[in-house]
Write a structure and sequence with these properties.
It is a single chain. The protein has about 350 residues and is mostly helical. The chain has 15 helices and two strands. Strand 1 and strand 2 form a beta hairpin. The longest helix has 24 residues.
Length: about 350
Amino acid sequence: MHGHAEGSIAFAHADSWAGSGSTSLVERKQREDIESASLSLLATRAIDAGERAMDESPDPWRTCFERDRDRILHASAFRRLAGKTQVFVFPDDHQRTRLTHALEVAQVATSVSRALGLNVALTDAIALGHDCGHGPGGHASEDALSPYVEGGYDHAVWGADVTLTPLNLCVETLDGIRNHSWSRPAPHTPEGEVVSWADRIAYVCHDFEDAVDARIVTPDALPAIVRDRCGERRSHQLGAFITAMIHAAGQSGRVGMTADAAEALAAFRKFNYDNVYLRPASQAQARSVISLLQALVEHYAAHPQLLPDVVDLEPGSAETLRQSVSYVGGMTDRFACRQAVAMLGWDTSRLPQGIDTDL
């Protein structure tokens, strides 16, 4: 099938009719002007190619932040999030991965940004890229890789300063990714602040839903403050927290959340830590992840010829260690486990629970 030609133009369907109704096109500069006029006072404006480490020519049709969003979406680091743990290693089909988490963060964040008159394209780019620095096996990967990185391995910093560097993203996008964690300094843009909240909202709600589906907890176990203020269903909880952020902006002009909802969110998060993240099975899983990833890093550091796409590295050198951390940190859960079994003779009984290297 080559479509249906009418002169020099091809159409998908024999009865195609759709169009814009005009032959006029809206180029990037015109769209930037329209966007700038409609955004709120402190929203981040897209200008030409944006501020990047390496200068580029502007795209004729896309704003600089739209280009960032597209680059992240097509990056291998983003695709590999599909094989990385959110809470459950090697999750069931309906449980979250780092990829589905990123998509849910983007939904929450853009919902808030639209209502606040912020730059939705920048918000979306930060949200989609915010976890690209995560290693396999969940947050335990940070504990595993930290001994080999000066200052420790922080997935937010590593994602912005190492993993996504080849994409030459705008400084505003990288800043939002680097500082999305609440333990980091505040982002320099309101869009980055929105993603910081959206990340917490999304993971608290969906991790609880996954834990309920896994029969680790039950909805009626939620603290009363959460049930009363946000409900027991994820859709109600997300709606409550998003609305609370919008109302907070309406009252203060700043990115935040009304106090009663923020109190419920904190209680919700504590419940998840006490009953899901820090339960004995999760801690055992973390120990398995740490020992496996550290064994892989040390093996690659001692045998740099096994690292792909690098040459002339000395065994045990600082650069070799950094390249080893980067390679292992980029692995999916399944690939890391397969490599450990294949290269190190790793006992399959020591793999994180749920991993099957034959699949």
